[in-house]
Recover the amino acids of this structure.
């Protein structure tokens, strides 16, 4: 298992492959513990807990008894349980009661990430960030009941506003190759409506691209939801592209986006957890999403670096995908942020070493003018 730093969370590191909670709902106590035991055994140390389901919380508390510190917990604020079902609320007293219930049932006195639940509209953003909910989150953080503040959203415009406030440390966001082509919307259902894909789309939506780059620059980590699009991405008939990805291609796509720390994957069994953890041992051809993206007629990514690494190997050892990523971050900012400079400096080889041999351009499935990108990077970074 590999780990990445989680936002501005005091050096906290989380496994790149993490757990969504839906697959645990409805499990017996024994089944729940068996799944969590297997995840911890395989090095998975991060779980999202959007559901306020009391049985889920009780089972998690029992499964974590005596080893709470082994798991990074992401608990949602404003996710409540009423009349036997989950609801989202902005009622402060209900939000407080649900959060305390979470602590009590899990048997802990703190949550690592206090995730403000599901903010997709501008009006909801204004209510949350300028009202009692954000003040409550600040109080929880000051009291040590949450160690960081997060926000979950499907709308890149709202997510960007949240990051720009400087108040959130972690962003939970829906990421996959299909959703990344869609423009901002206040209705998350637009992401998977077939009619929004039927006429084809051209490249990654710039609002999403800019959001990921902003998170990378500001040190706000993204943990990914909807990596498989509710399973649609894995099914040829249901996929918006009309072609199926495999699980490893979906993971690889998300883990190569700027700003991403972890992917919250839905697992319903021990076998599914084992399969996802085997991602690191899978052959590169099974992870290579570029072969799928480049082969689609209606959906075009031409000319855009997708950070897939298909350009490798470079004849002089340059990590072309990383150089392109840092160049894009610098160009988007209009200046070179210190953090980007530091990351670029740590690369073993730099853009100025490019021999202009053209091997990378011949390998690139998206027709990126890589030699020109290397010249620009050498100009921007100075070497």
């Amino acid at each position: 298992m590999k780990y990445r730093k989680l936002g501005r969370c005091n050096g906290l590191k989380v496994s790149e492959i993490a757990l969504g909670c839906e697959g645990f709902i409805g499990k017996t106590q024994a089944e729940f513990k068996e799944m969590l035991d297997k995840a911890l055994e395989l090095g998975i140390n991060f779980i999202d807990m959007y559901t306020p389901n009391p049985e889920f919380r009780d089972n998690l508390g029992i499964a974590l008894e005596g080893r709470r510190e082994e798991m990074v917990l992401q608990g949602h604020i404003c996710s409540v349980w009423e009349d036997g079902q989950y609801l989202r609320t902005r009622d402060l007293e209900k939000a407080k009661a649900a959060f305390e219930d979470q602590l009590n049932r899990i048997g802990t006195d703190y949550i690592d990430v206090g995730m403000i639940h599901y903010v997709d509209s501008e009006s909801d953003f204004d209510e949350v960030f300028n009202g009692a909910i954000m003040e409550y989150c600040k109080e929880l953080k000051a009291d040590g009941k949450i160690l960081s503040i997060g926000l979950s959203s499907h709308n890149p415009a709202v997510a960007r506003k949240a990051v720009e406030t400087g108040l959130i440390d972690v962003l939970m966001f829906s990421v996959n190759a299909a959703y990344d082509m869609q423009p901002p919307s206040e209705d998350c259902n637009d992401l998977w409506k077939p009619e929004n894909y039927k006429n084809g789309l051209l490249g990654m939506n710039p609002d999403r691209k800019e959001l990921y780059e902003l998170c990378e620059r500001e040190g706000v980590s993204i943990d990914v939801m909807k990596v498989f699009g509710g399973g649609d991405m894995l099914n040829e008939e249901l996929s918006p592209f009309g072609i199926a990805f495999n699980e490893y291609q979906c993971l690889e796509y998300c883990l190569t986006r700027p700003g991403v720390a972890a992917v919250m994957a839905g697992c319903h069994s021990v076998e599914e957890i084992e399969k996802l953890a085997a991602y690191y041992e899978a052959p590169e051809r099974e992870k290579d999403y570029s072969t799928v993206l480049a082969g689609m007629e209606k959906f075009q990514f031409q000319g855009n670096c997708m950070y897939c690494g298909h350009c490798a190997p470079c004849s002089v050892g340059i990590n072309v995908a990383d150089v392109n990523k840092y160049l894009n971050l610098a160009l988007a900012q209009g200046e070179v942020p210190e953090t980007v400079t530091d990351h670029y400096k740590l690369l073993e080889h730099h853009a100025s070493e490019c021999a202009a041999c053209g091997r990378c351009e011949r390998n690139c499935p998206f027709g990126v003018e890589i030699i020109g990108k290397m010249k620009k990077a050498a100009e921007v970074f100075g070497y």
Observations:
- The first helix runs from residue 29 to 41.
- The domain at 3-288 is CATH 3.20.20.100 (TIM Barrel).
